[in-house]
Amino acid sequence: MRIGILLPTNVYFAPYSRVYTDIFDQHGISYDILYFDKRNLNESAAYRFAANVSSTDGNLKRFWGYWRYARFLAKAIKREGYDRLIVCGPQIAIFLYPFLKKHYAGKFILDYRDLSIEQRFMKRYRKLLAISAYNMISSPGFKRCLPEANYILSHNVSIDLLRKACSNNRTDRNNRINQNNQTTQINPTNPVFTVLTIGGIRDYEQNAAVMMALANRPEFETAYIGRGEEGADVKLRQLAEREHVENVHFEGFYKKEDEPGIIQKATFLNIFYPRKLSHDTALSNRFYSSLLFRKPMITTADTIQGDYASNYGVGIAISDADHLAERLRQYIDDFDEATYERNRHQLLQSFLKDYEEFEKAVLMLCTT
Predict the structure, then answer these.
(1) What is the per-residue pLDDT for 264?
(2) SS3 label, residue 198
């Protein structure tokens, strides 16, 4: 059995492919990765299609790029004769639909991670759902935006980390909320509760609102660590200088292997996003990091992440940053580690159950 994993972007920007490759590696299943090199990274894989296409390009250029990529994929798949396909992203699936219907009906997984062009091509997407063997989604929130179908959840988290977290059901000793010894903060000279934004620094208005809500509060600091997108990090630095914000810490690029250590030094993880459908329905990497590292999250109210935070008590959900310091102070004062740990463990166990269903489906398709 040979599997083709079709990615809609660079391998680096599709870490979710590992939820499949980990299963295939464990069970000795042969696979190839075929990807769209949008950033000219020239990553190692079986097939690479290079074209300069970004999310800021107009629809015509992006659609043309995916149409060309779909033609490239069809030729590569015919050449290799894969037994099964993992089609990641609606962009690929939409343009490959005639090929999939003719050659792979009932023999491919349709994997969905983000809102994309299927919102404009819903009629064709419904047809894809009808001919796929399984339909994977990474968040239950996406059901709001997709046709009714039988969906299986495939979380954007390492199964090894998830299993480790589920087996480690203890009262946390690394969460600084109830600790007297506050020596692990990101800025050791300023022993306070740290609100960390890590990874892609985007959504300037929301990040600025958080920073200013906590500006020069003696018990808090904010930290922005990672790459800025569309100049958001630069604008935040300029705002901090202009408003004389002293309790903020900035760092740019960091090594991925350093991320756990950075997160461990924080108190809260910031996932306060603007209200738009793509953010309202998705589960972010920071959401999982919050749970895995026992760092309560700051999320947006009336979103899938906000619902989890509120329903399980693993953080707070806010509509705006007004009175954020008071909300955090209240959460800190009311914080009970045993209750937090119990709720966190219950949520992670539900994710592990989702993974087991996902793994069973993948193996059912790719071994028979």
Answers:
(1) 93
(2) strand
